[in-house]
Write a structure and sequence with these properties.
about 240 residues, 2 domains, two-stranded antiparallel ribbon, globular
Protein backbone atom coordinates (compact mmCIF):
# COMPACT_ATOMS: atom_id res chain seq x y z
CA UNK A 1 0.00 0.00 0.00
CA UNK A 2 2.83 2.38 0.88
CA UNK A 3 4.57 1.51 -2.39
CA UNK A 4 1.43 2.19 -4.42
CA UNK A 5 0.97 5.54 -2.67
CA UNK A 6 4.60 6.44 -3.36
CA UNK A 7 4.25 5.55 -7.04
CA UNK A 8 1.06 7.59 -7.37
CA UNK A 9 2.64 10.67 -5.79
CA UNK A 10 5.95 10.29 -7.65
CA UNK A 11 4.39 11.32 -10.98
CA UNK A 12 3.23 14.60 -9.46
CA UNK A 13 6.65 15.12 -7.84
CA UNK A 14 8.29 14.73 -11.25
CA UNK A 15 5.82 17.23 -12.69
CA UNK A 16 6.63 19.74 -9.92
CA UNK A 17 10.35 19.36 -10.58
CA UNK A 18 9.82 20.08 -14.27
CA UNK A 19 7.48 23.06 -13.76
CA UNK A 20 8.87 24.65 -10.57
CA UNK A 21 12.51 23.59 -10.90
CA UNK A 22 12.41 22.54 -7.25
CA UNK A 23 11.82 19.28 -5.42
CA UNK A 24 8.20 19.64 -4.25
CA UNK A 25 6.77 16.22 -3.30
CA UNK A 26 3.09 17.22 -3.47
CA UNK A 27 2.17 20.87 -3.06
CA UNK A 28 3.73 24.25 -2.35
CA UNK A 29 1.14 24.99 0.33
CA UNK A 30 2.71 22.47 2.72
CA UNK A 31 4.74 25.27 4.28
CA UNK A 32 1.77 27.48 5.09
CA UNK A 33 -0.21 24.49 6.39
CA UNK A 34 2.73 23.58 8.60
CA UNK A 35 2.81 27.16 9.87
CA UNK A 36 -0.94 27.12 10.64
CA UNK A 37 -0.32 24.27 13.05
CA UNK A 38 2.74 25.78 14.71
CA UNK A 39 2.57 29.47 15.59
CA UNK A 40 2.09 31.67 18.64
CA UNK A 41 -1.62 32.34 18.13
CA UNK A 42 -2.53 28.72 17.38
CA UNK A 43 -6.24 28.00 17.64
CA UNK A 44 -9.15 26.32 15.90
CA UNK A 45 -9.78 29.19 13.49
CA UNK A 46 -6.48 31.07 13.88
CA UNK A 47 -4.35 31.84 10.84
CA UNK A 48 -1.61 33.58 12.77
CA UNK A 49 0.28 36.19 10.74
CA UNK A 50 -0.18 34.32 7.47
CA UNK A 51 -1.33 37.28 5.42
CA UNK A 52 1.19 39.61 7.04
CA UNK A 53 4.05 37.29 6.10
CA UNK A 54 2.78 37.06 2.55
CA UNK A 55 2.48 40.82 2.25
CA UNK A 56 6.05 41.31 3.49
CA UNK A 57 7.30 38.78 0.96
CA UNK A 58 5.42 40.59 -1.82
CA UNK A 59 6.88 43.90 -0.64
CA UNK A 60 10.35 42.39 -1.02
CA UNK A 61 9.49 41.44 -4.59
CA UNK A 62 9.13 37.71 -3.94
CA UNK A 63 6.27 35.99 -5.76
CA UNK A 64 7.83 32.54 -5.76
CA UNK A 65 5.45 30.05 -4.15
CA UNK A 66 8.30 27.66 -3.38
CA UNK A 67 10.20 30.38 -1.52
CA UNK A 68 7.01 31.31 0.33
CA UNK A 69 6.54 27.71 1.43
CA UNK A 70 10.11 27.54 2.72
CA UNK A 71 9.69 30.80 4.66
CA UNK A 72 6.55 29.55 6.39
CA UNK A 73 8.31 26.28 7.22
CA UNK A 74 11.30 28.06 8.76
CA UNK A 75 9.06 30.32 10.86
CA UNK A 76 7.13 27.30 12.14
CA UNK A 77 10.33 25.40 12.96
CA UNK A 78 11.65 28.43 14.83
CA UNK A 79 8.47 28.52 16.89
CA UNK A 80 8.71 24.79 17.68
CA UNK A 81 12.29 25.18 18.90
CA UNK A 82 11.50 28.18 21.10
CA UNK A 83 8.10 26.98 22.39
CA UNK A 84 8.50 23.21 22.40
CA UNK A 85 6.17 22.30 25.28
CA UNK A 86 3.55 24.82 24.24
CA UNK A 87 3.64 23.32 20.77
CA UNK A 88 3.15 19.84 22.25
CA UNK A 89 0.02 21.09 23.99
CA UNK A 90 -1.19 22.52 20.70
CA UNK A 91 -0.66 19.12 19.07
CA UNK A 92 -2.91 17.53 21.66
CA UNK A 93 -5.48 20.24 20.95
CA UNK A 94 -5.43 19.14 17.30
CA UNK A 95 -6.65 15.70 18.38
CA UNK A 96 -9.54 17.38 20.16
CA UNK A 97 -10.30 19.52 17.09
CA UNK A 98 -10.28 16.42 14.90
CA UNK A 99 -12.50 14.13 16.95
CA UNK A 100 -14.61 16.39 19.15
CA UNK A 101 -14.89 19.89 17.65
CA UNK A 102 -17.37 21.46 17.46
CA UNK A 103 -18.96 19.07 19.98
CA UNK A 104 -18.86 20.61 23.43
CA UNK A 105 -16.88 18.50 25.90
CA UNK A 106 -19.03 19.65 28.80
CA UNK A 107 -22.16 18.45 27.03
CA UNK A 108 -20.92 14.86 27.28
CA UNK A 109 -22.17 14.93 30.87
CA UNK A 110 -25.47 16.56 29.91
CA UNK A 111 -27.46 14.05 27.83
CA UNK A 112 -30.37 16.46 27.47
CA UNK A 113 -28.10 18.63 25.29
CA UNK A 114 -26.97 15.90 22.92
CA UNK A 115 -29.77 16.55 20.45
CA UNK A 116 -30.36 20.27 20.96
CA UNK A 117 -29.75 22.88 18.29
CA UNK A 118 -27.60 25.27 20.32
CA UNK A 119 -25.20 22.49 21.34
CA UNK A 120 -25.69 20.22 18.37
CA UNK A 121 -22.96 17.67 17.62
CA UNK A 122 -24.04 17.48 13.99
CA UNK A 123 -22.62 20.70 12.60
CA UNK A 124 -20.43 20.24 9.53
CA UNK A 125 -18.07 22.82 11.03
CA UNK A 126 -18.72 25.86 13.24
CA UNK A 127 -19.92 28.41 10.69
CA UNK A 128 -23.36 29.01 12.18
CA UNK A 129 -23.36 32.75 11.49
CA UNK A 130 -22.49 32.24 7.83
CA UNK A 131 -25.55 30.08 7.14
CA UNK A 132 -23.48 27.04 6.26
CA UNK A 133 -25.37 24.58 8.44
CA UNK A 134 -26.46 21.26 6.96
CA UNK A 135 -29.49 19.61 8.54
CA UNK A 136 -31.32 16.39 7.88
CA UNK A 137 -34.50 17.33 9.71
CA UNK A 138 -36.31 20.63 10.41
CA UNK A 139 -34.85 22.61 13.30
CA UNK A 140 -35.33 26.10 14.66
CA UNK A 141 -32.67 28.77 15.08
CA UNK A 142 -32.26 31.13 18.05
CA UNK A 143 -35.11 33.35 16.81
CA UNK A 144 -37.50 30.42 16.43
CA UNK A 145 -37.43 30.46 12.64
CA UNK A 146 -37.62 27.06 10.97
CA UNK A 147 -34.49 25.90 9.14
CA UNK A 148 -34.89 23.27 6.46
CA UNK A 149 -32.00 21.17 5.12
CA UNK A 150 -30.76 21.92 1.63
CA UNK A 151 -28.70 19.34 -0.22
CA UNK A 152 -28.70 21.46 -3.38
CA UNK A 153 -27.15 24.53 -1.78
CA UNK A 154 -24.81 23.01 0.77
CA UNK A 155 -23.87 19.61 -0.61
CA UNK A 156 -24.28 19.31 -4.36
CA UNK A 157 -23.84 22.97 -5.26
CA UNK A 158 -20.91 23.81 -2.96
CA UNK A 159 -19.54 20.28 -2.70
CA UNK A 160 -19.33 20.38 1.09
CA UNK A 161 -19.01 17.16 3.07
CA UNK A 162 -21.56 16.95 5.89
CA UNK A 163 -20.10 15.77 9.19
CA UNK A 164 -23.42 14.49 10.43
CA UNK A 165 -24.23 11.87 13.03
CA UNK A 166 -21.12 12.47 15.09
CA UNK A 167 -22.14 13.38 18.62
CA UNK A 168 -21.77 11.88 22.06
CA UNK A 169 -24.11 8.91 21.47
CA UNK A 170 -22.08 7.88 18.41
CA UNK A 171 -18.76 8.70 20.08
CA UNK A 172 -19.54 6.47 23.06
CA UNK A 173 -20.72 3.64 20.82
CA UNK A 174 -17.64 3.97 18.61
CA UNK A 175 -15.19 3.90 21.52
CA UNK A 176 -16.80 0.89 23.15
CA UNK A 177 -17.02 -0.98 19.85
CA UNK A 178 -13.39 -0.18 19.04
CA UNK A 179 -12.12 -1.44 22.39
CA UNK A 180 -14.10 -4.68 22.21
CA UNK A 181 -13.27 -5.34 18.55
CA UNK A 182 -9.53 -4.87 19.11
CA UNK A 183 -9.63 -7.47 21.87
CA UNK A 184 -11.64 -9.97 19.83
CA UNK A 185 -10.62 -9.49 16.19
CA UNK A 186 -6.99 -8.95 15.12
CA UNK A 187 -8.15 -7.56 11.76
CA UNK A 188 -9.56 -4.53 13.55
CA UNK A 189 -5.98 -3.48 14.32
CA UNK A 190 -5.77 -2.31 10.71
CA UNK A 191 -8.56 0.21 11.33
CA UNK A 192 -6.88 1.36 14.52
CA UNK A 193 -3.56 1.79 12.69
CA UNK A 194 -5.28 3.83 9.97
CA UNK A 195 -6.81 6.02 12.65
CA UNK A 196 -3.47 6.57 14.39
CA UNK A 197 -1.49 7.30 11.22
CA UNK A 198 -4.08 9.77 9.94
CA UNK A 199 -4.15 11.55 13.30
CA UNK A 200 -0.35 11.78 13.46
CA UNK A 201 -0.19 13.27 9.97
CA UNK A 202 -2.68 15.97 10.93
CA UNK A 203 -0.74 16.73 14.10
CA UNK A 204 2.17 17.74 11.88
CA UNK A 205 -0.04 20.36 10.24
CA UNK A 206 -3.42 21.36 11.70
CA UNK A 207 -6.84 19.80 12.23
CA UNK A 208 -10.43 20.94 11.79
CA UNK A 209 -13.72 19.12 12.18
CA UNK A 210 -14.06 18.72 8.41
CA UNK A 211 -10.91 16.56 8.37
CA UNK A 212 -12.94 13.98 10.27
CA UNK A 213 -14.89 13.09 7.13
CA UNK A 214 -12.36 10.53 5.75
CA UNK A 215 -12.32 8.77 9.13
CA UNK A 216 -16.06 8.30 9.51
CA UNK A 217 -16.26 5.22 7.23
CA UNK A 218 -13.67 3.59 9.52
CA UNK A 219 -15.42 4.67 12.73
CA UNK A 220 -19.08 3.96 12.00
CA UNK A 221 -18.64 0.15 11.83
CA UNK A 222 -17.46 0.13 15.45
CA UNK A 223 -20.53 2.08 16.53
CA UNK A 224 -22.69 -0.42 14.62
CA UNK A 225 -20.81 -3.26 16.31
CA UNK A 226 -21.66 -1.79 19.72
CA UNK A 227 -25.33 -1.57 18.76
CA UNK A 228 -25.27 -5.23 17.68
CA UNK A 229 -23.70 -6.26 20.98
CA UNK A 230 -26.27 -4.26 22.93
CA UNK A 231 -29.06 -5.83 20.90
CA UNK A 232 -27.68 -9.29 21.57
CA UNK A 233 -27.54 -8.58 25.30
CA UNK A 234 -31.12 -7.32 25.29
CA UNK A 235 -32.30 -10.41 23.41
CA UNK A 236 -30.62 -12.68 25.93
CA UNK A 237 -32.22 -10.82 28.82
CA UNK A 238 -35.65 -10.93 27.19
CA UNK A 239 -35.16 -14.58 26.30
CA UNK A 240 -34.59 -15.42 29.92
Amino acid sequence: MVLYAFLAVSFWTIRNQAVLDHVVPVSTNSGVNFYLGHHEDFGYNSFGDKEGIRQRLRAQGSNDEVVESKVFTLIALRYIRSHFWEDMQNNLAKVYHLFLAPVSWSSSFEPWKWWSYLDSPYRPWPWETQQRELRFWPVRDETGQMIMPSYRDYFWKEGRLPLVFWGWPVIYLTLSGLVIAIRRYPLSHFFLLTLIVYTLVLMVYFANARFRAPLLPFLYPFAAYSICLLGSKVNKIIGR
